[in-house]
Amino acid sequence: MPRIAPGTPEAELPTPCLILDLDALEANLDRMADAARAAGMRLRPHGKMHRSVDLGRAQMARGAVGLCAQTVGEAEVFVAGGIGDVLVTNEVRDPAKLARLATLAAGGARVGLCLDDPAAVAPTGAAAREAGATLDAWIELMCGGRCGVADPAAVAPLAAAIAAEPGLRFAGIHAYEGSAQHLTGDAERGARIATAGERVRAALDALRAAGIDCPQVTGAGTGTWQHEAASGLWTELQCGSYAVMDADYGRIEDPQGQRLDQGWRNALFVLAQVISTPVPGRAVCDAGLKSMSGESGLPLVWGQEGVTATGLSDEHTVLDDPAGALAPGDRLRLIPGHCDPTVNLHDAFVCVRNGVVEAV
Questions:
Q1: How far is CA 93 from CA 72, 111, 132, 155, 168, in A?
Q2: Are 131 and 157 in contact (CB under 8 A)?
Q3: Whole-prediction pTM value?
Q4: Cα gap 194→87, rounded to integer Å
């Protein structure tokens, strides 16, 4: 990326680049922080969405108890950037990666990871002891059909094994229903969370019967957090995409029947430039799959009534422009289909306020 100085007008930015609208971002961060407090919930936003120490610090400044990460590398960068409490919401089995997490904990950070297999307890504890550290061990409960303990009754003996292993601390249950997040109807999402809640309740009952305290139940995403918050079961929210939104989340309905992007503001855009209008009604811009994710659908065109994306290739987005509103040189903000993998394609956010660069 060319060096971009604060004060540069958005109209002069090189394209494609990743734009973060600060007013929209800050409104979203404030709204979720306030909502979590009102619900009596801890907020642990998922850092895999933004992969940014700066944005993580902004969430911590608003009361987040820590961040989630999805990889050991993300956890290392967050801790190095001053985030003192990081949960890797994934199983980590590689001995070298376990050693890296233990080293972070030995340095003073609170570091957690997920377990769903009794055979993982001893090597995880050994890595912690070797580093002179204690790791938080969360039991992942299968909710969406990916990783996790399939039988809620098996949570209790696994928790007992964790509690008995020097170097480990039983931190609670990780219960994230990922398959529910992007279902369009709120009632359908609510039904999925109710089913997940039954599994959480059964696991808590099993722990209680074994005399084991469960400190926290963590989970929830941008699409479902209100259902977890209302359940009385979850204690911690892991929402991530709320901070910037994307086209896929924007399409779903909230509990009031409105699109999610009518309440949460789009803060993340790929800035693109029209490079060709080859035939009437068609425009082509210079941002494609190397600038934004396409697995969750085509991008939306921000602020251009009647202009829609019809195709996405390596370096191009093809636009349907029936009114002929676009001309070569025009700059467009594109809302990507999926924020997480889009952010992963870029080196930095170009942060703008009122059309002017404030930071990179």
A1: 11, 15, 19, 19, 15
A2: no
A3: 0.96
A4: 25
Does 65 have pLDDT greater than 80?
yes
Per residue, what are the HEC states of 68-90?
EECCHHHHHHHHHCCCCEEEEEE
**Torsion angle in degrees (nearest 10) through CA of 22, 26, 29, 35:** -150
Note whether 270 and 16 are within 8 A (CB).
Answer: yes
Please say whether the dihedral angle defined by the alpha carbons of residues 201, 42, 18 and 299, taken in this order, is positive or negative.
positive
Residues facing residue 318 across a β-bridge = 284, 311
Task: Determine the Cα–Cα distance for residues 142 and 148; give it in Å rounded to an integer.
Answer: 4
- Distance (Å, whole) CA 113 – CA 254: 31
Among residues 215, 132, 124, 194, the alpha carbon closest in space to that of 161 is found at 124
The contacts of residue 121 (CB under 8 Å, 6+ apart) are 115, 137, 158, 161, 162, 165, 168
Q: How is residue 180 annotated by DSSP? A: G
Query: How far, in Å, CA of 69 to CA of 203, rounded?
Result: 24
Q: Which two tokens stand for residue 82?
A: 């001053």
CB-based contact 152:120 (threshold 8 Å): no
Computed over its alpha carbons, how large is the radius of gyration of the chain? 22
The pLDDT, as a whole number, for residue 230 is 97
In tens, the pLDDT along 328-358 reads 999 999 999 999 999 999 999 999 999 999 9
CA atoms of 92 and 15, how far apart (whole Å)? 38
Distance from C-alpha of 54 to C-alpha of 25, rounded to nearest angstrom: 12
- CA 300 to CA 335: how far, in whole Å? 5
